[in-house]
UniProtKB/TrEMBL annotation:
Domain (HTH lysR-type) ranges: 12-62
Keyword hit for Plastid: no
Family: Belongs to the LysR transcriptional regulatory family.
Pfam families linked: HTH_1, LysR_substrate
Key words, A-Z: DNA-binding, Transcription, Transcription regulation
Gene Ontology molecular function: any one: transcription cis-regulatory region binding
SUPFAM superfamilies per record: Periplasmic binding protein-like II, Winged helix' DNA-binding domain
Protein name as it appears in the record: Transcriptional regulator
Amino acid sequence: MENEMIDQRYITFLILTKTKSYTKTAKKLFITQPAVTQQVKSLEKELQLKLVEYHQPHLKITERGEKLASFVNNITNQQAEFINYLKNPDLQKEIVFGATKSVAIFMVPKVIEDFSNNFDKINCVVTNTEKILNMIDNGKLDFAILEGNFNKNNYSYHSMQKERFICVANANNRLTQLHEVNISQLLNQTLILREKGSGTRCILYNWLKSLNLSFNDFNKLISFNEPTGIIELVKNDVGISFMYESLASKELANGNLREINLTGLDIFRTMNLVYSRNNYFSKYFNQLFQS
């Protein structure tokens, strides 16, 4: 891998953390396996840090090694982007950002509308929180708009707006007529929830866990990876679901859905602009959203 600005030993170590194999790393770099070992040991000696633990046949990256790899990965991605910017400052301005599926429905259209005045090409990738964070780590996204949990120590972020997390059902569901509903009254319902890796599923999981409950305590479970599909199922009285109020606002307003006033469900989540730490373009991203 050609990288003139970063010491080759760091690049070698970064590849090793991904392959977990000296042999595979050597093949990727077209060097010998002893050369890989020598570079990693040289790096450990210079930094005075243990980066790799090897107990044949298993190779393990230490905690400090993982942190270093994350930093190097971030730097290499930003280097490529910045050098490209320096070489081609007059090219069409392009931005690639990510958004979770819920956010894509009630926030992204306005974001794209605003961006259309600043960029010639706009590409929005819509998927779940887990996949988006992975794309940021690998330099495939400039930034993302997330509502799910993420490690705030690993990313830079800017708070945008807060969203209320609610339980919704078909307007004819008897529970919507009650002033207050206890969680135990909800367990005989069919729960419709998002797929694994989604932010809203994680929020619900953690809230239920705080009550010593799980998804399996509900009568039936349906997993669906499309928020609009979930809304349709709830409208058709197939089950109940949990989502952001903004996502269900139209159906709540026209009376197709109603909120279940669930005792103890007092959750507000912040929508965040998330990007790699120390990103050279971070001030620009923040200015776009503040303007």
